[in-house]
Amino acid sequence: MSYKVFGMTLGPIATNCYCLEDDKTGQAIMVDATGNIDKLMDRIEANGAKPIALLLTHAHFDHIDAVDKVRNRYPDIKVYIGENDAPLLSNPMYNLSVAFMDKPITVKADETVCDGQVISLMGLDIKCIEVPGHTIGGMCYYIDYNNKQEDGSQEGFRIIFDGDTLFNGSIGRSDFPTGDGETLINSIREKLLSLPEDTVVLPGHDSKTTIGKEKEDNFYFN
Questions:
Q1: Terminus-to-terminus CA distance in the chain, angstroms?
Q2: Which residues of the chain, if any, have pLDDT below 70?
Q3: CB within 8 A of 159, min separation 6: which ones?
Q4: What is the Cα–Cα distance from 174 to 108, expressed in whole angstroms?
Q5: How many C-alpha atoms does 94 have within 13 Å on its Cβ side?
Q6: How confident is the model over 37-52, as pLDDT tens digits?
Q7: Rg from Cα positions in the chain
Q8: Nearest Cα to Cα of residue 122 among 145, 152, 148
């Protein structure tokens, strides 16, 4: 398969930052940026790839504080975030940088995306699924890729980068500014748990899981 996904746990509170690479084109998509993001970028370059996009799942400090590091290294990269979370990028109170880092952080996105929008990057259709509750406009990025090869074989995968929305056996916090617990639970149930059960969930913290596992085992939905 030409596509591969990997991640690193970085930053002040162990945030998972991810990369999706295309071996055929040498392009890559990054998801969230915190702490010593240079480690992830070094690995990407060691693989012979170059990022063309940075997808932000939401605007909390531990997912955005290294955005400018990424931009400095890749000036042409485009940074995406959900339209309803975009204002938090420039609000240090709401993005929690003052509370947790004791210094204000503000960044800007190049593009905002809305619920249900499909963005095409690197030969992939990436569906943007807004799941509010952890923040007002948390955005999940869903990819359902299936491609028939010339030899008749199939290659494909289903993944979702969901930030701090749905975790392995848990859900994201909802006690921060713009959060709402009831909205979070209802949004996950309606928008994420309806995805195919073999979808691999790549969260912003802790270990990966699947939609099927969370439907069966997650305390909040049973």
A1: 36
A2: 1, 148-153
A3: 5, 142, 143, 199, 200, 201, 202
A4: 24
A5: 18
A6: 999 999 999 999 999 9
A7: 17
A8: 145
Token readout for 95 is 């993005």
Cβ contacts of 166 within 8 Å, gap of 6 or more: 131, 172, 188, 192, 201, 203, 209, 214, 218
Main-chain phi, psi angles of 136, to 5 degrees: -70, -25
> What would the 3-class secondary structure string for 170-214 be?
EECCCCCCCCCHHHHHHHHHHHHCCCCCCCEEEECCCCCEEHHHH
Cα 1 to Cα 127, 147, 155, 209, distances in angstroms = 21, 10, 6, 21
Can you say whether residue 29 is alpha, beta or left, with left for phi > 0 and alpha for psi between -120 and 50 degrees?
Answer: beta
pLDDT in tens, 133-170: 999 999 999 999 998 666 666 779 999 999 999 999 99
Counting residues of the chain whose pLDDT is more than 70, the rounded percentage is 97
Distances (CA, A) of 12 to 20, 163, 165: 23, 16, 19
Token digits of residue 102: 């004791």
Rounded Cα gap, residues 127 and 213, in angstroms: 22
Tokens coding 64 = 């955005």
Q: If you count them, how many residues does the chain have?
A: 222
The strand pairing partners of 51, in sequence order, are 28
- What distance separates the 2 farthest-apart alpha carbons in the chain? 57
